[in-house]
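Q: Convert this sequence to structure tokens.
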Amino acid sequence: MLVVPYLAALLVAGATWVDAPLLGAWLGGYLLSYYVFQALKSRRPRRYREQVTWYAALTAPLALLVVWARPAVLWYAPAYAALIGVNAWYAWRRRERALANDLAAVAQSCLMVFVVATVAGRPLAPVVGVFLACAAYFTGTVFFVKTMIRERGNPSYLRWSVAFHLGAFALGMWLGPALAAFFGWLLVRSWWFPRRPFTPKQLGFIEIGNSLLLLAAIALTWI
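A:
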């Protein structure tokens, strides 16, 4: 979820040298936030002081370089601050598995599509479809994984998951045949997989494959 929207945007918007420090800041920021949230959850910030310090020292210079090269990325700062605030609140409450917390993380990752386009100096309109495709895939995956693990056997979650994937399939049909086929497969997955025994490891490998299929569908649609 961290790299797929970034790579998808690169495919459509093109790459510049700023994308390298952007990726470093994005990955470093994720690791920094992980340890900050662990500190909030544990109520023991000293335990994670070293990790927070190291990842802050790694992330800050890269982020400043990106801002120096492309000041327009600051337009996204309020949205990221609000979404990170949601994650922090759930970490403090020790409810990281809450649906709203997962969706906030999805939104952060998918907004990277627009950040990459801004870094490339491209208009945002051509990557709106890429954003929608990534958001639909990862949001649907949140529902799907819950039906496979934490909410397995919960008919309400299963109905929500299938209904969402049906909507994502309709979106795919609007975006193009490659994405229609991709989201059609995900619709079948959302209905059929919860009726079969899969381990978390198996699901992880399947979703790696699905991420690659998403990138392929985006490339066939917009390149």
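The chain has two domains: 1-6+13-98, 124-223.
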